[in-house]
Design goal:
Elements lengths: L1 H32 L14 E8 L5 E8 L3 E7 L2 E13 L2 E11 L6 E9 L4 E4 L2 E6 L2
Antiparallel strand pairs: 1-2, 1-8, 2-3, 3-4, 4-5, 5-6, 6-7, 7-8
């Protein structure tokens, strides 16, 4: 009698281990196949005009503005500065976007390719562009 119960116990343990192994393999396949890189969460947040202004050490007022369209970027500022570029989002790590700029024209030293990093603060409604904080959306 005990021998039969022991063989059933071993059989049930074996079947339970097989089911567990099956679910582990299916779970690993499912979570491994999710495409995490194609979801750019902050793409729509950066669209529009973003403005930053201040006073230089010599007392002159300055301002700088980024205008993001779907694939085009216009940079302008005072004292006189104007540049345009096309961009694509190369990478997104949580709230940090890395934009690849190409087709750059205007008052810039770089004419071919450049990278622009943008930190997004959705709660504060601000951007930090290339380590310069304080960009606010222009209504």
């Amino acid at each position: 009698m005990y021998l039969i119960l022991l063989s059933y116990t071993i059989t049930y343990l074996f079947l339970g281990a097989l089911f567990f192994l099956f679910f582990v393999i299916v779970g690993a396949w499912y979570f491994g196949s999710i495409d995490k890189k194609s979801k750019i969460l902050n793409r729509n947040f950066i669209l529009g005009k973003w403005h930053r202004k201040g006073i230089s050490p010599t007392g002159e007022l300055w301002s700088f503005e980024f205008d993001f369209d779907r694939d085009k970027l216009v940079m302008s500022g005072t004292p006189e500065f104007m540049a345009t570029a096309k961009y694509r989002i190369a990478k997104e790590d949580e709230n940090l976007l890395t934009l690849e700029l190409y087709g750059i024209e205007g008052d810039t030293i770089i004419k071919n390719h450049a990278h622009l990093q943008i930190a997004v603060d959705k709660k504060g409604g601000r951007l930090t562009i290339d380590s310069r904080s304080g960009y606010v959306r222009v209504a």
